[in-house]
Amino acid sequence: MSRSINAVRDFVLKNSTIVLFVALFVFFGVVAPRFFSGKNITNIFSNASYIGIVGVGMTFVLLTGGIDLSVGSTMYVSAVVAGLVVNQLGLPIGLGLAACLLVGLVFGLINAFIITRLNVVPFIATLTTMLAGRGFGLMLTKSVAVNFPDSLTLLATVDVFGFFPIEVVIFLAVVFAAALYLRSTTGGRRIYAVGNDIEIAKKAGIRTTPVVASTYVICALCAALGGFISIAEMGRVNADFGKGEEFNAIAAAVLGGASLFGGIGTVFPGTLLGTVMIQMIQAGLVFSNVDVYKQEIVKALMIFLAVFIDSLRNSQLRKLGRRTIMRVSDSS
Amino acid sequence: MTLPPLAEWPRRAILSEYFVLILTVAYVLVLWPFIPWLLGQRNVGDILSNMWPLLAIAVGQTFVLVSAGIDLSQTSIMAVTSVIGAMIMTRGLDPVLFSKSPFWGIFLGEQGGPLAGSPAAVPVAILAMLLVGTIIGLGNGACVAFIRMPPFIVTLVSQLLFSAVAIFLTKSENIRHLPDEYLALGQGNLGIVPIAMIITVTLAVTAHVLMSRTAYGRRLYATGNNPVASRVSGVSTTRVIVSVYAISGFCAAIGSILYSARLEMGRPTLGSGQLLDIVGATVIGGVSLAGGKGKVTWTFFGVLFYVVLANTLNLLNLSFFTIDMVKGGVILFAALMDVMRTRAMAARN
Amino acid sequence: METSAIFEFRGISKRFFGIHALKDVSLVLRPGVVLGLVGENGAGKSTLMNIAGGVIPPDEGTMFLQGQLYRPLDPNEASRAGIGFIHQELNLFTNLSIAENIFLESFPRMRGLPFIDRRTLADTTRQLLASLNMDFSPSTKLEALAPGERQLVEIAKALSYESRIIIFDEPTTSLTAKERERLFSLIQRLRGEGKAIVYISHILGDVRALADEVAVLRDGELVANAPVADLRIDRMITLMIGRDFDNIFPAKTSRPGQKTILKVDALSQTGIARNISIEVHAGEVLGVFGLMGSGRTETARMIFGLDEYETGTITVGDSVLPARDPVAAIRGGMAFVTENRREEGLLMNVSISDNLGLVSLAEFSRRFGGIVDRKRLREAVGRIGAELRIKSGSYERLNAKSLSGGNQQKVVIGKWLMTRPRVLIMDEPTRGIDVGAKFEVYTIMNELASQGTGILFISSEVEELMGICDRIVVFSRGEIIRDFPRHEFSQERIMRSAFRQEDAAVLDA
Fold first, then answer.
1. Is B228 on the interface with A (CB under 8 A)?
2. What's this model's pTM, rounded to 2 decimal places?
3. For residues A22 and A27, what is the distance between their CA atoms, to the nearest angstrom?
4. Which of the four CATH numbers 2.60.40, 1.10.3470, 1.20.1280, 1.10.490 does domain A36-309 have?
């Protein structure tokens, strides 16, 4: 009897993402079947796009066992700089996007430097970048909101093939590129190796510093891109744009199966599903007229659940690693 | 990274326990010619009154850091306890603002909270605040000790959760009309000594004794230094870990009492943005993020430095975003110093 | 260098903390020859191979690979030079697939694109696995494989580098009988292909079955290097143990009492230990001998309560101890000096006096609030320090890190002695400390025994066990094989027990 309970538990721990997703699906299907209208689904994906992109970047960092709390500030500063380039300098939107990504690159390099060269723990390093970054952004804007020209917001309403909202296409493209990198390049596999056991990776001759650094750069770039997409829809950047988004990104990745302990996780289907799940829950709560304040509580509980499962899985893995001296089949 | 080797006297200064205090004094001396009112009575009073609540909370954080953990939920504990305490003792609530609150009609009404006007209001409210803070702390500690979740994620999630709860309970509104006896805690004096100072100093001294003179303190340092060896030596590391988070929650509640009394309201957003101040001040004082190292006196120096720094930045009329940047830089600097100090100590041996 | 040799060690020496791990070792490896490398724990086998494998550099001496000077800077260089080292602890990533583990640094690429050519990767891996008779899919994640199978992946990795020399370090410890057979036929095959093989193992029967030549190391020196036909097992054992006694032992003054102070009854934990029963009497020093990996430390940890066990009871005096509860064990009068003092025995960055007082803290903090009576503690710590002759400056200002190995060990012992234990478990207490300090530890053990403490003394050095103990039990593969009372002590017989070579018939195999 206890063996089948163990088997069930192991299955759930290993496939937590799919299990949660299906459970959620079933839940909504039963409680509010009208939730699954075509328009609703499109809206969910559309709203999920920008945070999904940030979540993909976060997945890279989590894979090496790190964390990046500065993505919210990265989103803000890169959006602000893009706004300045377009408004103040009158340059075309394309250059605005380029400037935006450049800011992301800089943030990523700063984080990478502090973590790999100055040996500061990732969460303190990115916590300070978060603070300093936001301060810098506020200094640039003097706390005033930055507006974007209509040409940009118009672009955001484009539907590819008349059907797919452009932000969804970009999101899926990012997921595809990231998944391809992680799965089919040496750099990507090295990320998994370093996340699994950094000491063995060093022994195998892998130069771990560039591997870890690259994850922070990619994460910041994704944050910048996600920020750009978000403001393209909203048309303006407020002083508290991006605040708290790091938790959404972490939640999307961890719900999608990425482990805080490193070495485990995927962007496809993982983070993709994780992002959609969070959006589904959000939309579902709105749909069911749950008030805004309770929604935040539910979101926090969801992240807790995801991390709880992750910790249980980690403990299980460690217990299985206990050395054996004698094989059960040996008799003398 | 290979940092250049230090000459002897800078190394000694950095390794000295009083480094931060020396730094603070030096800093003040350097700036004083430019802002002479820095040491004026009014400004000093300002500095000190900012110091007490922050110190109370940082004392709690010190315990957690020494255990090689971290508590990022202290600000949300401040918020939720501020709200809960205020709800119990408030003497009047505007229905326009509060009718949507979940407790409206049950505990809360136009005439205030359940104990509005009663002499028991303030003691009960305070007790409730301390209790809630400690219980949240116990929850954090249990997750870290028994489920082995990483401290920063557990407390980060707690932070999210309880901030949301605080806002939920009041629908983002501040609760006013708090009894005068309560306000006295944050604003009043006993003779010439501010009550806030008495509360904080008592807390700090007790904490100091606990850490440096009791068996519990030794076990705490052991756990933070080497949990495996501690366990072999009979230390119940789980008990130690759960307790430090409980203490941290308790201290956050005390800080909340002092802040709320000063602001004269229960604020669901209390403490927001102050997380880095708390952790930063403690780390600047010399408490190590890696665990096993730190004293309440060091935290005192760190908080003093931090409050003086913030005060001077204000006086210099810097924009608040520049202030944020400077603060971020200072904390990074503190974290770097932590790394360097550990290395300097290793080199000395 | 001999023309037929592919690798040569010439005059290799290595010291760790002043103690010779290897002394002037010269050895030759030949293609198509399996060299068995045997010796006691700490004889230098792994050290020698680690030098060849680029893990550590030699202090003196040189190596030659195919006639050329060979001086690898890191394990990578060694791999690329053609030396495959199958360590006891496998260097594989559990979250990657078999194929990825083998080709992590040398993925086949798609033409013109920077992407991994999965098909070629799978094909190449499949071929490699087929040559090892493994029919796993190349995309299987490593964590799904059993230890024996993971080992084959490590071997496959070595083969993928086209290694000409393959070193196996204690390869059969985690294998089933079937996996062992598979490994052996694989080794035979590799030998037939002209590879030079080094096989390190303490299972002497296996060594005799596989090897063409055998080299015996003792205390870092090569004491024999001959064709396997010339070295029967008892000869191997004799060569392994005979040594100059530079260990002197204090005269034994105590005699074991009647009362049983520690009773371990039928202790078992799947895969770790089976049916362990031990009785220690008051004033008795019970030795526990066994080869590395035989389960002694694991058993001690279970007795003390650090690890769980499935069945069995532990009794100290008259009370049964609850499982997995070190605090209860300590309260019941047990003490445990662990194997590695740096990780489990000491708080390195904490003062000597705080280390000494850690376990017995409760005794010195009975005052209100748990406040420590510093004066009383200081006196007690000073007394213990004097008794144990711990040589150091101020106990309160210096950290444990500042002490020498011997003094560190005394601090660990002292910490436990302050609780006045009834039973003291000591796991390799004289490892890594100098002769003088060893003598002092033996003296302490004698004194404790004469005061009525029961001591469980785990060690890998037969001589020191014979010098101090009243009885010796021998562990092998998680079981107690034999129990030797003092009048039956004999180095050869105890060693043979540990190697499971009891039968006279087996000795001539």
1. no
2. 0.85
3. 8
4. 1.10.3470
